[in-house]
Write a structure and sequence with these properties.
Helix 2 runs antiparallel to helix 3, helix 2 packs across helix 8 and helix 4 packs across helix 5. By secondary structure, this protein is an all-alpha fold. It contains 15 helices and no strands.
C-alpha cells in the first residue's frame, strides 16, 4: 500500500480546519496527532519493519484521534466517560457511512488493520484472537499514544486536563485502590480513580503497558516520566505516596532494562 504523506497531512489539515483552530484543545490534539505519528514510525523502525510498514505505522498515528475533534464539538469535553468513546467515533467517521478513509488513502488493502488499530488504541486490553501482524501494529500505536500522553501531562496545565483547580490537584491524596494497583504493574482502571491526583498516577502507570524496548528508551530519555514522578504536592501524605511510587517505578524500569 502506497501512502502519500503530503496528501494525508493536507487531508488531515482540511478536516481539522472545519473545527475552531483557535481552541487550545483543538491545537493540543493536532500537535498530539503529529507527535504520535512520528513516534509510531520511530518504534516501527526500531522493530526493523519494512519501509512500507513504517509508512503504515505513521498513518495509524495520523488517524488514531480523528474522533477527538467531533467529540469536542458535540460534547465540549475529551472525557470519554462523560461523552462518547472517541476511538469508536473515529472508526465510524473513517469506516462508517461517510467512509472518510478514502479521503486519505485510495488503497483499501490495509483497511481491516487500520480500523482495528484505531478502535482499540484506547482500550484497557486488546481483544483476543487478533492475528500477529495486526496485534503488533496495535501495540505500536498504543505505545506511541501512551508516550505522548506523558508529555501532555507535563506541558499542559493539570487543571485543564482534569477539569479541576491546581489547588485541588496539589492537595489531593492518592486513593488506596490506585496505590495498590500501581504495584500490579498494570494501567489504572478508570473505575477506581476517585481524586484528581489519581488521574495523574493513572497516566504514570501507562508506562507499565509499554510493549517495545524502544518505547521505554524514549520514556526514560525524554524526561517527562521523571518530571511527573516528581510532582510537587502540598499534601505531606501525598508526598510520601509519591516517594513510594517513584521507587517502585525506578525498580520496574531497572528490571526492564
Amino acid at each position: 500500500m502506497k501512502i502519500d504523506r503530503k496528501h494525508v497531512e493536507d487531508t488531515f489539515r482540511k478536516y481539522t480546519d472545519a473545527y475552531d483552530s483557535t481552541d487550545e484543545k483543538i491545537k493540543l490534539k493536532i500537535a498530539h496527532t503529529y507527535r504520535v505519528a512520528g513516534l509510531c514510525e520511530r518504534i516501527a523502525q526500531s522493530e526493523n519493519l519494512s519501509a512500507e510498514e513504517m509508512e503504515l505505522a505513521w498513518l495509524l498515528g495520523m488517524l488514531h484521534d480523528v474522533g477527538r475533534f467531533e467529540q469536542l464539538r458535540r460534547y465540549d469535553t475529551f472525557n470519554d466517560a462523560m461523552s462518547i468513546d472517541h476511538a469508536k467515533l473515529g472508526a465510524e467517521i473513517l469506516f462508517g457511512s461517510e467512509n472518510r478513509i478514502r479521503d486519505y488513502i485510495k488503497d483499501g488493502a490495509e483497511d481491516s488493520l487500520v480500523e482495528t488499530a484505531i478502535l482499540t488504541h484506547n482500550a484497557y486490553r486488546l481483544p483476543e484472537g487478533l492475528d500477529a501482524r495486526t496485534e503488533k501494529f496495535c501495540h505500536v500505536l498504543r505505545d506511541a499514544d501512551k508516550i505522548d500522553i506523558l508529555r501532555v501531562n507535563v506541558e499542559v496545565p493539570l487543571e485543564e486536563i482534569y477539569n479541576t483547580t491546581i489547588e485541588d490537584v496539589q492537595n489531593a491524596v492518592v486513593t488506596e485502590a490506585v496505590m495498590d494497583n500501581f504495584f500490579t504493574h498494570r494501567a489504572t482502571p478508570r473505575q477506581i480513580k476517585k481524586s484528581s491526583i489519581d488521574h495523574l498516577v493513572g497516566h504514570i502507570s501507562l508506562v507499565y503497558e509499554l510493549v517495545f524496548s524502544e518505547s521505554l528508551r524514549i520514556v526514560e530519555n525524554d524526561g517527562y516520566l521523571e518530571r511527573l514522578m516528581h510532582f510537587e504536592s502540598r499534601n505531606p501524605q501525598t508526598k510520601k505516596q509519591f516517594d513510594v511510587l517513584r521507587r517502585e517505578m525506578e525498580h520496574y524500569l531497572q528490571e526492564r532494562a
